Amino acid sequence: MSSKKKYVFKLEGMSCSNCALSIEKHLQKNKIVEFNIDFANSELSVARGENISENKIIELITKIGFKATLLSSQKTTKKLISKSEVLFVVSLIFTLPLLAHMFLNHEHFLSKPLVQLFLCLPVFLIGVYQFGISAIKSTINRLPNMDVLIFLGSSSAFFYSVYGCFFSDYSAKDFLFFETCATIITLVLLGNSIEKRSIKKTTSSIEKLKELNETIVKRLTKNDIEKVHFNQVQLGDVLFFNSGERIIFDGLIVEGQAEIDSSFITGESLTSSKKAGDLVTAGSIIVNGNLKLKSEKVGEETTISKVIQLVKDAQNKKPKIQRIGDKVSNYFVQFVILISILTYITNFYFFEIDKLESFLRSIAVLVISCPCAMGLATPTALMVGIGRAARNGVLVKGGDTLEKVCQIKKIIFDKTGTITTGKFKINKIDIKHDNHHHVNSIIYSLESHSSHPIAKSICAYLKSNSKLLKIENVEEVKGMGISGYHDDIEYKIGSSRLTKIDNNNYDIFLTADKKLIASISVQDELKSDVIDIINDLKKIGIKCILLSGDKKEKCVLVNNQIGFNEIFYEKLPEEKLEIIEESNKNLKTAMIGDGINDSPALSQSFVGISISNAANIAVDASDVILLNKNNIGSLKTLINVSNKTLETIKQNLFWAFSYNIIAIPIAAMGLLNPMWAAFFMAFSDIVVVGNSLRLNLKKIN
């Protein structure tokens, strides 16, 4: 979905995660398949299609009691106080005097039935507006949500009190429950307000990224420097950044030199030096120096925008464990209503408890039950976990991926560019031809068509003493090399498989019409943290395998330094696929590669992990992207974040189920009055959200 254009709507009226589930079911029922609901930010994104219009989506959302507004038509201004918080304050003003009468004598002004009615009425109308409309429409559409329980509980207390006020004898007026109705609504509004603010904190990683898209930048004109908003920058504009400022565009440095800190995006703590001609990634900070930068990606195409979208999309891909909460939530409201009715019947007819007490117990059952905690258990933990991973340079493309990472028992490593630096040192070029410059130019021109790390290193080595020649009919064979024609001569450069030449002293061979004219010896270095990381993985029971297309001698040499459980060498891409497919049959297997040459293998594995440039994140075929190419330490971060997130989800679900299993019988037995029930229900969600926020404090490295 992330690659398609979409409508983005602002949603109003979602008081809990169960409301989001109702919207999800309603859209699916109406054959809307590709969409994401962001409960934390009250947003709905829907992929555009032939039969999907913005008016149709707005109509569908309105039908079940919510309001949708196209985001582009809305002014995005930050509100200091939300609508639910305003309604809570208004409700509180009327509820406090109602509660006060409980501590005063019966002759006091506040104890008069009509005064209590007029104090309760505004609060009840707020309840109808906030919960009643949604409750009625969700019931009509056979998707009852949490609002149904709140509305039933508060309405029962209100109408019973109205009956006691006008239609019963004097003694009944001593048992009015206007304060119960008002307190239920006020406490639920308070809980919703705190819950919303808490959930906002779980998306703090996205919010920090979004803030960058609101930045004012300095754009160079012919005669001056002008300040413009992020959205006004066009492709090719030259921007000026000083020391201490954050670069918010992917671009090419046209002038200047600076030390760059890219930790915000990649998680890499060390700074790097950049100069004219170098590319820089959005999100980097200039530690020292100043730069003139030509913008190469703007708007939704910038790295920051892509990261935001990836993280938001990831939060809506549900892991299997969430289905437990969703299944229970499907029938929870109906079940609670049934329990409430049975509570009244059992207490009144079988235990001969008086009508008023039986009535209060049935209301307490309605109010104390909380499907929201079950609905929030998984998404809030995922929001924090995925955000925590993103802050450490790990982009996870789905909440289900975090769950899958926890099941990994084997990791297959590619060699070049994954466990090695990918920056090859050219030891020697042996040219068997009189015109060395021409041969160098042939090598340079052929390799310039390849994205393989060895090809890039050879190009960098030969750039100063070669010229770019026209190569025709270029064909790259993955894992083997590249061929093409120049002046009607067929040139091939690559491994012995492509050139049919074998020599243990050299790695790359160049042939002209099948005749050897050059041999190249290259050397790669291990990344600094590879040995430690692989030892740590083996300690926790994960088997580590080396799978490479490189020569046996080189793979054995690497294995002697690291100590893999098993190694495979001289394997073609199709052979790699077969090995991964076979491995997945026995143990859940992850594959980690460079995200370009290893795309088929990454797609075939149980979890595909790529070490990729931040600029390529949108087209990457993997499930997880490690943005720091200099080491693989973030692989350990991924595993630790996944384990901590799954642990938090299990804790949340345990709390949510335990709360309801214990709270409903307590309310049914009359050990809690409806006001206390409302208090506990309102804060049960906050326990779940608070536990999810603890993920931010847990050690992951």
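Next protein, fold it too.
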Amino acid sequence: MRFTNFGTVCRHFLIFGLTALMIFPAAPSAALFAQQAQASARGSSAKGDLDGQPSNSTDSIDESAPPIIEQGAQSGSRRGQEDPVVANAQVSNQRVGIDVNKVLRLSLRDAVVMALEKNLDIADQRFNVQKAEYDLFSAQGVYDPSFSSTVNFNSSTRPVFFIFSGAAGNSIKTDTVTYNFGIQKLISSGGSFTLDFNNNRVSTDSIGDTLNPRFGSSILFQIRQPLMRNLKIDQARRSIHLSKRRLDISDIQFRQTAINIINQVQNAYWDLVFALQDERIRREAVDLAVVQYRNNKRRIEAGDLAPIELVQSEVQIQTRKEAVIQALQGVSTAENRLKNLILNDPKAEEWVYRIEPTESVEFVPQSYNLEDALALALKNRPEFESLRQQAQINQLDIKYFREQTKPQLDLIGSYQTQGASGTATPAAFSQPTSNAATIQQLTTFNQLITAVNRLTGQNISLFPVPPLIERPSANTISERFLGGQFRNWANLFGNDFRGYSFGVQISIPFSNQTAKANLGRALAESRQLDLQQKRLVQSVQMEVRNALQSLESARQRIESARAARLQAEVQLNGEMQRYAAGLTQNFFVLERQNQLSAAKGSEIRAITDYNKAVADLQRVLSTTLESAGIKLAPNQPSELPEVPSGFTFGLTKSKQSK
């Protein structure tokens, strides 16, 4: 019995001794873990709360704070060597294609302005606006007057055998110089007119012409005006109106493209802000793991902790190091995406710069009412203006095709004046001739005419034939026709030899099926546009509701994430104190550190998501440009623009488009 009691007493002393060894030697480590808890608190509250309030934050650890582990560092210094686990814990900030020494500090507005000036999608859409403007000028060119001219010289020699041909032999040579001018033009009432000024000079060796050379001129004015079809609108006017509407649509599309690009820039900017903050949080987690590793190593050296606990710390360092590498990849992805939106040259110098956002991660509450937001979206959205322009185009088509179903009834008229002049030739019969055959032919024909007259005198039913009249002499031609080209034009503008005509021309198709089918199609398209407008209203309403809900959800996430982060900080501090007192294990300390890092990342993500939700809501309400302080002022040229040599900022709109 005594032996049994003695064994029991020994066991009690052994348990008491082991307990004393576990508690009292750990006292120095408790002070170190208190320092670690204070360092964690400093790292969490270095820059204040994310919404601007002075509280524990997810910003970086205060670099001005004293070293977290002084004794461990001094111990390593004394040994003259550094622990390889600690030495390899940090991840280099070097990235592919980036010079970390070159920094581009960029605010959100700077990024937006750079995108408007250099973004390739905006530049492409800007050229679409210019192309639409050129299309309008091209359509208006149908009313430009057209000038035509013909200058021609013609020389011909033809054989003749007729007795009255005037040929001195068996051929006549004629030289003709023609110089004609004309103007044709469409008029805005659907009609057209032409003005022709024709001139010629004719010289010949025929003895039958009294003027040789002879000048002739004429002015002919013709007009055609529709009275039914094409009176209210024709193809030319339809093309001009369509080009105006399409120019307006291209302006609307440019505005929509600018809004979308700005929204993408805003989202990319906040994604980069989050990526940089996430990288910083991951590096802080590595620092905490290193602190825990050093503390554990010191306790193992002091015999207070089992060596297996150090392996667990090493694993945690490597795990968090991997998270830093992944965060660094996220920084590169977000930064390249932003650069792709704000740069227009793949060889631009800014590609090697490290972007440093200057906007702080702040929570600025926004308040929107559903009814007001819906009214604002219905008023501002470019899609509704584009749909209105399409409806106007449809009304133009209906008007034009209805006009084409009418009969064609045109009023036509013309007015002409003529002039002539030349050099008089000698009388044919007052001069001797050496052509005996011609004289004999003329004598024989005169005898034949005399015989016919005798027959008619005997009451034979024949047409009376007058006797052959000799060729008049030169002095029988009026003086007003004797002269050259200027005499010809004087007679022309004297308006003594004029003529005019007027009338109507009608064309009635039997079926006109093509015009009726086109009209029916335009009416069907009008009903389709009504349905598209209803669908667009419903779609915009859905987008507004979703955007407001996303904004509210992001706000609630911020509140929840902030509370979770504060609780994680308290839990970590408590867990570290318990670990210093020997009441918990290393595993739970590392787990609390991971939870704090995750809570910090969630809070940063919630705030950046809130800012992105604000940007998305501005896009849905089409207030992005106004919120960013951007104004796109339209340019209204009065003449055909020059081909641009570079990018221009703003819209281009013809002053005839309203």
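About the second fold: The longest helix spans residues 513-580.
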